[in-house]
Amino acid sequence: MTGAGKSAVGNTLLGMDTFHSYPAEECVTLNCETSEAVLESGRKIKVADTPAFYADSNMLEVLNFFEFLAPGPHAILIIIRPCRISKRDVIILDEMQKIFRDDQLFYRFAILVFVRKNDIIGEYGCCVNIHEYIKDYTNKDILNLYEKCGQRAIAVANRQSWKGRNVEAIEIMKEIDKLDRVYFHEFFQKTVQVEELKKELKNELTKNMKKKKWFSFLNFHEIN
């Protein structure tokens, strides 16, 4: 989601300020960026921060994350704000499935990450569990997205101390570890090569270059 804070979530995962991030309504990330880190546990990870889907060049840039995270990402984090998702966002997510050549493949490795955790409240201003919040206080589009992602969701607060952010990074990693351990790249290798995807996308963009569409993702890869 444009301006949702995915660069900040990427920094939280990495445990340091690597991606350029500040509060904004428009997307701060203009190019696909990648960074690596070694966690306290000894795990090596790589995170790719993608730009928004709002222009032809950016859509091609997003596709580059396959190359940045070769041989393939292990998780796709969809970063959104509480109660903020439009019909256009839903359409873009559905179109992303075409890249993966499988209606279920994209969502099989997707996790919803809600930012602004302190805004996730229920009746009488009380804090609620993220799953309860989604089921009882969000619109049907977010609920449908939640179901497509296998009810995988987590809430984080980017604007807090690093001590708190490190705790939330651990929680995100726990959600990633719950994913099917049949690695994402095995499915990707069975479908199509990156260059073929780019060629198809360029052809599609030529037909739709006047249409403005956007969405953005954060991609996670564990380095062996």
From TrEMBL:
Task: Give the UniProt family note.
Answer: Belongs to the TRAFAC class TrmE-Era-EngA-EngB-Septin-like GTPase superfamily. AIG1/Toc34/Toc159-like paraseptin GTPase family. IAN subfamily.
A GO molecular function term, named singly, is:
GTP binding
Q: Which organism is it from?
A: Mytilus coruscus
Report the domain of life of the source organism. Eukaryota
Q: What is the lineage of its organism?
A: Eukaryota, Metazoa, Spiralia, Lophotrochozoa, Mollusca
The entry's keywords: GTP-binding, Nucleotide-binding
Q: Which residues form the AIG1-type G domain?
A: 1-192
**What's the protein called, per UniProt?**
AIG1-type G domain-containing protein
Cross-referenced InterPro entries, in alphabetical order? G_AIG1 (IPR006703), GIMA/IAN/Toc (IPR045058), P-loop_NTPase (IPR027417)
